[in-house]
Design a protein that fits this description.
Elements: E1 2-8, E2 11-16, E3 28-36, H1 39-45, E4 55-56, E5 60-68, E6 79-82, H2 92-95, E7 127-129, H3 132-135, E8 137-138, H4 145-148, H5 154-168, E9 173-177, H6 182-194, E10 199-203, H7 207-215, E11 219-221, E12 229-234, H8 239-248, E13 249-257, H9 270-276, E14 279-282, H10 287-301, E15 311-314, H11 318-322, E16 329-332
Parallel strand pairs: 9-10, 9-12, 10-11, 12-13, 13-14, 15-16
Antiparallel strand pairs: 1-2, 1-4, 3-5, 3-7, 3-16, 5-6, 6-8
Helix pairs in contact: 5-6, 5-10
The structure holds zinc ion (2 copies).
Residues 87-88, 90-91, 93-94, 102-104 line the site of one zinc ion (ZN).
Length: 341
């Protein structure tokens, strides 16, 4: 079969590889139909994050079930979301919702990220899903996979940034420091609007992204406004962003970093944070767990992923599009390529 691999920064290409086979009763083989380019893929494609040459890429996947083991819990023909990370659903971490830290597979085992476990990537003719019942969720009836692909992965990341906090504090004042990862920051602002936050300020130096945030109902700023906020999402990998978030945190605030700072360590005034009572959360998302949250938001409060300007490309053009400058890219098998459907 064909799959797309990272060759070097700026170059992704199709290569032949043996098709995966079922290895047990709980498994399924899924044919990716629509794959979105996660913000993380942009970092890999540009060489900002390490990725071994020859590693398969792509992990934001909606596909069709092709073949199943006897205990897979899905059937051929089902259209499903495939989470980026491999999770068994049964270990201690998975049961706690820490599906990005499943104990049944190598650490951080995922599709398309150069991780251990040899699970391949989403830009492929087939992917093997080792825990189909735990991992796969159905595409809602009548749901357009191109419109919903953002909910397959980046939406789950955005949900963990704002969903749990706003469930308890729905009228919170929210600040999103956006820019990188760009779409996850925008989804976080959009989701905060959908979930009823009273104030949603989105900060980004980029005018186009500010316009997207405004289209979702957030108030956009080119630089951080003064004020204090109950929930601050850091989608900007700098220590200045982190320092700014600590300075703007209201008493009892929560700060969520959806990226590490990549420009060095930060000295933190812990006594001041201690007296205000600030919670700081940083970590990789738990994709399967967060997917339930984002789909609930989609079903109940109208969050839609597809207002982010998206370049939709034919499947075979994915490698070039993955290295381009578009804000978001979605590759889809089309009716013009019936052999691909
Ligand atoms: Zn991702
Ligand atoms: Zn597990």
């Amino acid at each position: 079969m064909k799959h797309a691999v990272f060759v070097k920064p700026g170059l992704i290409e199709w290569r032949e590889t043996p098709a995966p086979q079922l290895q047990g009763p709980r498994e399924a083989l899924v044919r990716p139909l629509v794959v979105g380019r996660c913000d993380l893929d942009v970092a890999y494609a540009r060489g900002l994050l390490p990725m071994p040459s020859g590693a398969p890429i792509g992990h934001e996947i909606i596909g069709e079930v092709i073949e199943v083991g006897e205990d897979a819990g899905v059937k051929p023909g089902d259209r499903v979301f495939v989470p980026a990370q491999i999770s068994c659903g049964a270990c201690r971490n998975c049961r706690r919702g820490l599906t990005g830290r499943c104990e049944s597979v190598p650490f951080a085992a995922s599709y398309g990220m150069g991780r251990e476990g040899d699970y391949g990537g989403g830009l492929a003719d087939l992917v093997r899903v080792p825990f189909a019942r735990a991992m796969l969720t159905p595409l809602p009836g009548g749901g357009d996979p191109v419109a919903l692909i953002g909910a397959a992965d980046m939406g789950a990341d955005a949900w963990r940034a704002v969903g749990p906090y706003l469930a308890h504090h729905p009228e919170a004042r929210v600040l999103v420091l956006g820019g990188m990862p760009p779409v996850i920051g925008l989804y976080s602002a959009a989701l905060a609007v959908a979930l009823g936050a009273s104030v949603i300020h989105y900060v980004d130096a980029d005018e186009t992204r500010r316009a997207v945030a405004e289209s979702y109902g957030a108030t956009a700023h080119p630089a951080t406004p003064s004020g204090s906020y109950d929930l601050i999402v850091i989608a900007l990998p700098t220590r200045a962003a982190l320092a700014g978030a600590f300075a703007l945190a209201a008493p009892g605030a929560t700060i969520v970093s959806v990226t590490p700072a990549i420009d060095g360590p930060l000295e933190v005034a812990t006594a001041e944070l201690y007296h205000r009572g600030v919670t700081w959360t940083i970590g990789r998302p738990d994709c399967r767990h967060g997917h339930d949250g984002i789909m609930n938001a989609w079903a109940t409060c109208g969050f839609c992923a597809d207002r982010v300007p998206t370049r939709v490309v034919d499947w075979q053009d994915a490698p070039d599009a993955w290295t381009g400058d578009d804000l978001y890219v979605v590759a889809t098998r089309t009716a013009e390529n019936p052999n691909d459907l």
